[in-house]
Amino acid sequence: MEEKQPIISITGLEKWYGSKHILKGIDLDIYPGQIIGYIGPNGAGKSTTVKILCGLITDFKGTVTVDGIDLRGDALAVKAKIGYVPENAELYDVLTPLEYLDFVGKLYGMEAPVIRSRAERLLASFGLGEQLNTRMDTFSKGMRQKVLLIAGIIHNPRIIMLDEPLSGLDANAVITVKEMISLLAKEGKTIFYCSHMMDVVEKISDRILLINDGAIVADGTFDSLKHGHGETLEHVFARLTGRAGDSNDAARIISALDEQ
Question: Is the entire prediction scored with pTM above 0.70?
Answer without folding.
Answer: yes
